[in-house]
Amino acid sequence: MYNILVVEDSGVVRKVLSKLLQEHSYFRCVMCVDYSEAQARLAEGETFFAAVVDLNLPDAASGEAVELVLKHNVPAIVLTGNFDEGLRSNLLDKGVIDYITKDSRFAYNQVVNLLDRLRKNLSIKVLVVEDSSTSSAYICSLLRKLQFKLLTATDGVDALQVLAQDQDIKLIIADHKMPRMDGCELVKQVRMDRRFQDVVFIGLSSSGDGILSARFIKNGANDFLRKPFYHEEFFCRIFQNLDSQEMLEQIRDSANLDALTNIYNRRYLFNQGETMFLDSNEISVAMVDVDNFKQVNDNFGHRVGDQLLQQFSALLIKHFGSDLVGRYGGEEFAIISNRNQTTFCVDMARFMTSVRNRLFTECDLAVTCSVGVCTTEKQNLSDMLDTADSHLYRAKKAGKDCIELCT
Q1: Which NCBIfam families does the entry link to (predicted)?
Q2: pTM score
């Protein structure tokens, strides 16, 4: 869960932001009503993912709160009731991520959407392809504000070598005029490789050639920007293209994903798991159940219960990202692995310790889980899942918060 510091003197604005942030399963809202309270909170050493700061506070009328959070290396989103060009330049010079005017309720949705975009960016690799060291440094400085992981290349040939070594790149920003291979030829080469069909490609150029944008897009680019560009336009184009690509991926993957937790569903588990079963010499199956989940729903409501399942799923992916992880039903999850069985069981014990040592949801709930594991190969995957499930219920009957193995 990511801590978000909100510094705002208006009770109405605090209430709106608090509600919107609490509805987000990844964010925990920390409210401060003025500069002094924010200063005291930051001095305690608590870690904040980002801050949402009112520009004009009763005890800091000239943006001192913005400088305060930036001094503590906390990325800042500024809320302001007024906007002019001088203010825009001043805020960007200070190093804020963005500024949002408080002109409608939609502005507060913008704040939360931007925070969520920053959260997603933490796992996104961006390749900047630019032969000018000055231009590359400037583009990277902007992207660094947005929490992206950065890689660089000096031309198209260099970029293809980087892509060959790192296939997790999700966004390419490339200049047009470069030695050996220009941007238009680079995007053409990228689109010829099926591995990079979904990579977002944004072309850049300082050329006055009006047809260049069409050339980029006809060759496969998602978008084009002419240099020099406005800070805000650069961010908006990147966000819009990433959001669109993620939406397409979500539509395409929706048949395989569980709607609540966004991990694989039961149907995909059986289909993909059967392939793993047939192709692997060594396979392990685990069934994992959140202990006392019904009490969470009964005592705190289904919204908190949903948050728990989402955060529990995210923790499973963190520990078993190289395995097949899915929601089997309700609060029960399945993991299918073709890794070394001893290593898998050790990792499962570490996962259970991680569950015990953290708090879940906005209610700071302490939970445990029970696990049944089958490492003895049966006639088919379904039999292994059934065996693991029966051992899960043994773990439940044994007092919960434990592992029952079938080896």
Answers
A1: GGDEF
A2: 0.66
